[in-house]
Amino acid sequence: MCNSFKVIFLKNNMKKIEAIILAKNEEKVIDALRKLDIGGMSLFHAQGRGRGPRKIKPGLGRYIERYNDILEIVIVVEDSKVEEVVSTITESAHTGSLGDGKIFISTIDKVIDITTKEKVEKNI
């Protein structure tokens, strides 16, 4: 069963912003992003770690935390909105401590809407 679909190359430059932040900052970052006119976003709760030293949890059964609880936020926006989104994430997720997170930006070449089987820019 092979359904045809339409691939449309984007005229406007679109970027995918992937931000990995500490999960404890979720509410502050998401609230700040909701104030922007960016459409939707995807959130992924996970665990991860960077290269930095691990924290030792105090208490009777002291242990070294292997992973941090993190949140990955994925947003696709027009080029003109990238700086605003990145600035909003950076300002709202920043604590000044090691491990605040990372932001990755990549170019989107094509988009296919699974429902309509074509690219509809207003849905991005």
Can you give a write-up of this model?
With 124 residues, this protein is an alpha+beta fold. The chain has a single domain, classed as Alpha-Beta Plaits (2-Layer Sandwich), CATH 3.30.70. Helices cover 17% and strands 39% of the residues. It is built from two helices and six strands, in the order E-H-E-E-E-E-H-E. The chain has helices spanning 26-34, 82-93, and strands at 8-22, 42-48, 56-57, 63-64, 68-78, 101-111. The chain has a four-stranded antiparallel beta sheet with strand order 2-5-1-6. Strands 3-4 form a two-stranded antiparallel sheet. A hairpin with a 5-residue loop joins strand 3 and strand 4. Helix 1 runs antiparallel to helix 2. The mean pLDDT is 85.
SSE inventory with pairings:
Layout lengths: L7 E15 L3 H9 L7 E7 L7 E2 L5 E2 L3 E11 L3 H12 L7 E11 L13
Helix pairs in contact: 1-2
Notable traits:
124 residues; Alpha-Beta Plaits; 2 helices; 39% strand; alpha+beta; 4-stranded antiparallel β-sheet; two-stranded antiparallel sheet
Termini gap: 28 Å
Q: What do we call the CATH topology?
A: Alpha-Beta Plaits
The average pLDDT value, as a whole number, equals: 85
For the largest beta sheet, what order do the strands appear in spatially?
2-5-1-6
Weakly predicted, low-confidence segments? none
Shape: elongated
Tell me the count of domains: 1
